[in-house]
Write a structure and sequence with these properties.
FAD/NAD(P)-binding domain, 5-stranded parallel beta sheet
Length: 524
Amino acid sequence: MERIKIIGAGLAGLSAAVRLAEMGIHSTLISIQPSERAQSVMAEGGINAALNTMGEDDSPAQHAADTLSAGVDLADPAAVEDLACHAPEILSWLVNLGAPLSRREGRIIQRNFGGQKKKRTAFAHSSTGKVLMTALIDECRKYEASAVVHRLCHHEFLSLSIREDHCEGVWVRDDYTGETFFLPGPVIIASGGINGFFPGMTTGTTSNTGNAAAQLFSQGVAFGNLEFIQYHPTTVRIPEKRMLISEAARGEGGRLFIYRDGKPRYFMEEKYPELGNLMPRDVVSREMFTISRETGEQVWLDMRGLSKKAWKERLEDLREEILYYMAIDPAKDPVPVSPGIHYFMGGIWVDRFHHTNISNLYAAGECACQYHGANRLGGNSTLGAIYGGRVAAQSAAAELGGAFPNVPYEGCSPEKPVSAQHSFQLRDILRDGLGILRDEDGIRKAVEKTGAMPVSANMMEEKRKSFAMAMLLSALERRESRGAHTRADYPQKDDEHFRRTTVVRYTDGAIRLSYERIGTEVHP
């Protein structure tokens, strides 16, 4: 029986493998790290679903409306409606798998999260990702035991075999033995975000190097909305990365301020009286950046007003992290915070059924461009990864069939490791061109610097340069401000020209950019 190949074993990859197994379809789950070390484990805040457990008359329609509003009308409404409508079912499924979401009197507790008018974020303290991953790992192991799921851990994705816009299979390498081999069949990409393009600047693991994205782009896989990078408002610098202070802290009552004349000025509450500190992340990060630049003052997160019950029952692990890494007790003293890169709304261009522009190739999770538009709501990434994995699995299963070669038409050699010098040079260029506030001059300078980087004999470094250029050109050509993409020289939203998906492809040795109607069927 032909196995569907899944690249990545986080929430999206596990969800796809389990869904295929439920349908009796075999899969091979391929990842460098074991699932216990996937990026998904680090998700803190929660998972969204309109369960209405808090008596606020919530509904999937309101969940969808908040998601589309936060995404500034750039997400596919049909896909978002599907996501919101299936969210309660997914939460029920996860609970049945054993995910111990926080409860009160037997009822799942939900809390406020940024950009949402109702309490719809379910959670497990501030370790939701760990809890959800544990449930999915255990469920997947049942199918591994019966050989329906075949797991290849410590195996690295190298390349697809593509012939006439048709995916024939995938090349992988065993990182223990160095063996390189080909696996024929349909492929679901669930490789996560591109944190490795921004070492030291992201809350995510740089084990997600971004090499998979660069390789796929070089092979003609289309990417969408690469200009939209989410800066999470509340992060702190720790060695080699940024530590996230979960949005849950603000959901429970945490307040942002700067000192003015020796007293706290709660600037978000002054400017946005309805949602205050729980405005969408792009808005909060932009306000923090602006007020710090104008006043020269540090922004602080004040959690001193949170109740003992909130700390003990819902944020105990977050308090422990801050104490461990910063030697600050957030229940007693404010915490200095600043925005850090947290999520990539852009990714492989997919439609609502998670097709890519290459037949027999699908994508889900953070590596894919779906559900979030120009800005992601907290709690929607975990939901989108799980739901997207299931949809990608169903699409792959429905289209499974036909013959696949036992050997590829062309061989594949492993790439040389990317040098630290290349990695940091490219990071600094992207940092300057793709910051919270952008303008044409800054982006053009970044484009010129990327183009001027010396030609490398290392092919992966060249592929990463091309992918970085695609990100910069996407930001350059979108001459408007929308969500996480803020242009100082084009401060207004321009629906007439830019309420469309930015799509970039690498064809005939050049980067091609186009704008596609939202909701376009991507399948070739």
